[in-house]
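Put briefly, the fold is written as integer tokens. One such record reads:
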Amino acid sequence: MPDNYKELLSALDALIDVTEPVQTGLSNASALIWQNLSSLNWAGFYLVRGGELALGPFQGKPACTMIGKGKGVCGTAWQEDQTIRVEDVHAFPGHIACDAASRSEIVIPLHDSNGRVMGVLDLDSFLPARFLPEDQEGLEAAAKLLEHKLFNFQDAAFSQNSDAPVGIVDSGLGGLSVLKEMIRLMPGEDFLYRGDSLHAPYGTKTPEDVQRYTFANVSYLMERGIKALVVACNTATSVCISRLREQYSDMPVIGVEPALKPAVLHSEGGRVLVMATPMTLQEHKFAELMDRYGREATIVKVPSQGLMEYVERGILEGQELDGFLADLLNPYLPADSIVLGCTHYPFLADAIRKAAGGSVQIYDGSEGTARELRRKLEENRILRESAHQGKVEILNSKDSAELAALAERLLYGC
């Protein structure tokens, strides 16, 4: 592979962030391709939207906005699901002349994890026969990288029926703390909870793995027919929320975030500890919160790797937990407030307060998430009548009687 394509692949891999929207990644990809390859007059993407290709991010002159399946080079590459390299576009049957200066063209299909064509990468040149076999090799490698970074998830439809359940995903059992607040605030709603204890914890996984697991669990819920989605995991919210909202743009998608604002307001310039997984603390969403509230209080990150596992094991109190929390918190104390930045941690609130000295104020975002869900359901006119007695179904990727009993204990206190 020529050196310029090796450099392009390296730049694409470094610049495209799996936590950002697909459009963002494609925009940077078109700019990188335009910057790294010579003799181009157009470089960009068309995305499958129903029965047509819709214009996506690109570099170059304004282009055709919609292309039918089987029409022109792009539509033909989509229909045949293969790369098409054309030395003279004017000799190509049914060529669509978006730019009369174009002489040669190459189009590469882009697929999701199920092999469905999600769009095409399209390059035009003002030179005839500009694209050689080595260009095809390099661009197909770039397309594979983009597929992995941007389209490695599944699609589905959602229900607009107000009687459908609300879907909730979490890395394990922690999201039950959010579910408790939603049941309290919306007793008439049905809830379908999907925990992923088989792959917990998410906070120590790569962003790519978190995205893959989360989208798989969301697809599972979509197949059951849900009307709204709550991502009841701080790590999954940080990594996946932009992509989920983009993929399911017509459905309410609610995430969770550390309750930093009320903690800062309470502390009045004091010291606020934020306990969360290492990934949550290093993601862009948390950096934005730090920028927003960091001038009003001293905000201290407390990476809490290993803490959520106590909840997954059903250890909510005792000497082992107390010792773990003492070792974890002592280097950061004293504190005025502690923000629980993982949905597992509210189940350990009493032990955390004890380890911190007893008088510290503890905040978590469960109530705020429940209020936002209710607001979104009302806004979309799919809030269920309160006269209905809501039902809850708890599912988990790790199927065991012990885990099911622990979930019941955490949710209902029994």
